Amino acid sequence: MDFKTIAEELSNSSTLNSVDMRAVLYGLQNMLIKYLKNGYTVKFGDLGNFRPSLGGSGEDTPELLTANHVSKVKIIFSPSPNLKEVMKTVTLKKVNK
Fold first, then answer.
1. From CA 1, how far away is CA 82, in angstroms rounded?
2. Contact at 8 Å (CB) between 3 and 22?
């Protein structure tokens, strides 16, 4: 599902038109990026949480650690308990192409 379609569907159930809805969603996207870049966990209610994660090599003392020791930066999404329950009710079916 693409960004534009989601914005259009959301606008159909709100007082915002699709252009305004896209502006809101872009703002939300920018805030998510801003807070993740600053090391925050971003909580999205019943959707779940996004958090930054780092990996790399260690040193014997904190003073020896530098940014060069970081080799992997990623984002971890943890679905909320509600979203996990919803996904348990999904009906699967084979799709023929």
1. 21
2. yes
